[in-house]
Amino acid sequence: MASSIHDLARHLNISIGTVSRALNGRADVNADTRQRVLDAAKQLNYAPNQSGRSLRQGATRSIAFMLQPHPGDLEYGEPFFIPFLTGLQARLAESGLDLIVVMGAPGDYQQERLRRVVETRRADAVVLAWTRREDERIDYLTQAGFPFATLGRSRSGGMAYPSLDLDFEKAGADAVDRLVSRGHRRIAAIRPSLDLNFGHLFVAGYRKALRRHGIEVDPGLIAEGFINEAGGYQVTPRVMLAKDRPTAIIFNNDAMALGGCKALAEMGIRPGHDIAVIVIVDTPLCRYFSPALTGFRPALEPMGKRLAEMLLASLPAFAGPEGTRIMREVWPLELIARDSD
Amino acid sequence: MASSIHDLARHLNISIGTVSRALNGRADVNADTRQRVLDAAKQLNYAPNQSGRSLRQGATRSIAFMLQPHPGDLEYGEPFFIPFLTGLQARLAESGLDLIVVMGAPGDYQQERLRRVVETRRADAVVLAWTRREDERIDYLTQAGFPFATLGRSRSGGMAYPSLDLDFEKAGADAVDRLVSRGHRRIAAIRPSLDLNFGHLFVAGYRKALRRHGIEVDPGLIAEGFINEAGGYQVTPRVMLAKDRPTAIIFNNDAMALGGCKALAEMGIRPGHDIAVIVIVDTPLCRYFSPALTGFRPALEPMGKRLAEMLLASLPAFAGPEGTRIMREVWPLELIARDSD
DNA sequence: TGTTGTTCCGTAAACGTTTACGAGAACACA
DNA sequence: TGTGTTCTCGTAAACGTTTACGGAACAACA
What we know:
The structure is a homodimer.
Chain A (H helix, E strand, L loop, with lengths): L4 H8 L3 H8 L7 H13 L6 H8 L4 E6 L13 H14 L3 E6 L7 H9 L5 E4 L7 H9 L3 E4 L11 E4 L1 H14 L5 E5 L5 H16 L9 E3 L4 H12 L7 E6 H13 L9 E6 L2 H5 L5 E4 L2 H15 L13 E4 L2 E3 L5
Helix pairs in contact in A: 1-2, 1-3, 2-3, 5-13, 6-7, 8-9, 10-11
The structure holds a DNA duplex (30 and 30 nucleotides).
């Protein structure tokens, strides 16, 4: 089954050097020799051995993405990344690169897996997600001189790498603006750990907008939970027990909102009627929930494509004009108004 | 940064052969030579180049899993697999194997990507999911003699491979039993394409149980939709317009149920009050939905571990006693009774 | 004829490992 | 002293590629 370049050479009675050159489209090979090689390759079902090629070229032609279940949540994972990965893979494939996703264990913060990928040279570059405010992965990669790009910002690594993020800060502010314009002044925020940079940004925007409207930020209206259904469920009652009850809640994401709405329902509070609800990162769940939840929709697949482009531009082997090396982009989050606020 | 076995040898003034033997724990190397090598390896931050090793050994020490967004759904993907992959990766890591997930484009049915992985020898074995009733991927792999295992059954490939599946047929039947015992006789089923084997199995169990109870199967109460929120939303009204309205609906999975409940809500029908709802594959969403949805919970992470074990047992390099080669297991689905039925 | 250039191809080294083979040293034993 | 055994290590080949280099064949031109 496994036919090598030697098989082709023997079959055609030419040297392996010529076969390789023909396969790789080099100029110094006769046109019909090339054709014969190509035909034979098809006939013998030839495909280059990736290990041999990588070894010789010092490049694997593949990009690694690290996927990891939420800490504290082994039940279900993050559907968020699938469309992003689809876009990423599509663009990388255009340049002949494979995308491989390496799974990490739930708790280990990826450090070990990352080292393993880098040191055993399993990939030519890495794409990071779930960036933390201070992110040791980024420090490690910059210090090791290994190419990478991130989905999400961080303060680590001197920002000398391509990164693409969503404007969670603006979304947080927009959510507040919208609620205030509808008469709300007691607005709660349910967020994940501030260590997660998007959580930090969301709350930063939320605070800023409140102040702009002359509303004092009440710490009792901000609560932190695990970034899943259980987190929202546990934490939402806490803000509802504040002296002066909130009339609106902004949730970081769909899962937290789902858990939160469950808690509200158990307290006899109906989202969309008795309280306004907005979620920052919109998903199909928000759309099909009853009431349909107002949220901000990210363009995940285009983002995947774009980050691939930015990463490619930073790789010497693919770089275009020198000027376009490091890029940092922040994409807007589009408000989808529905029934919950 | 990248230190090779030659660097170690030069540094210690011994031959690369000895270094390699020391690193690989072979017997014919002096105890303190080994210790010196190990120390130097740590000091020089040595990690074996994966390409070199694979090339020499003819094995990559990694297993591939194919992940692919739903056809017709580029918005969000399948969180189902994350805990499964976590279990898979954990068990594989114990045997020194890496798990890589290769992303496919949404439409391409994986055939091309699969060929690519196999022919370029990027992995030593493959794990397949979303098995179809007749699955050309399985045919291809068996015919190519490439090791693999599947999450889900199929009729393809002569069953000469390890596979692990959930008992969707029994779950379908159990759901019917439960509903009948609560007085329902008009029970609808919302399913995905019958080509997806779990969809087929679920409906088979549903039909069988109905007949056992002497209830005629009404084709008007079975509807097919995309296996996502939109699918459930589109298709649910169809069964509700049957002459003799159903009093209960069984949904294939959470996303379809979410869409279906939305459609019901718009018709003024309240799940748990006006109609009973059960979903086959339970998720946290079911638990936190209002009303909480009765469903059947799979043990995803243990399943990942188990399938890894079965796959390992089928690989010559890892096989234990010869007798334990091909295994096929079907795991039960545990009913979680909640408020929706 | 001699020189120069072009086109095409073969040779061989190199990438970083693992491993079969053999050899030197040390030791045991008669 | 001679023989055999054991321990330890070095040598070199091999895995499947890519590619620098050089050479053969031929054409063009003076």
